[in-house]
């Protein structure tokens, strides 16, 4: 895994991924299907990822997406980078419209409280994120004027995921 992470972490490789990012979701779905949800693209690269399920703000239909996260104390930080494209990813728009979501990680499902970070909290989180994965800076450059949304996901013991005991 160290070699794959080194390759994925190289700015040159990451720039290639930014150009070919549309190939990754089908590969991700295929890997998840054949591994029964245990392995995805990010795990192959040695990066921490989670399955984030959030209800659509318009459709009210729960949608699940794989996202990279950065551990930050008791919180998990997720970045709405959308590969540096001009628009926010739909999952980030949906996450910003709700106060909670569901996270599947390491075979464990939990409800999380969602906090959109702003101001000094966002700035501190951004530095934490860049220390962990510097390539987010390349994606931010590519995004131009769009500022990535950064969310802190906090464990929420007051509720449990539907259908999970």
TrEMBL record:
Catalytic activity as recorded in UniProt: oxidized coenzyme F420-(gamma-L-Glu)(n) + a quinol + H(+) = reduced coenzyme F420-(gamma-L-Glu)(n) + a quinone
Q: Might you report a single GO cellular component term?
A: plasma membrane
InterPro entries assigned: F420H2_quin_Rdtase, Split_barrel_FMN-bd
Q: Which GO terms describe its molecular function?
A: coenzyme F420 binding; oxidoreductase activity
Family annotation (Gene3D superfamilies): Electron Transport, Fmn-binding Protein, Chain A (2.30.110.10)
Family according to the record:
Belongs to the F420H(2)-dependent quinone reductase family.
Kindly give the NCBIfam families that the UniProt entry links to this protein: hi_GC_TIGR00026
Q: What is this protein called?
A: Nitroreductase family deazaflavin-dependent oxidoreductase
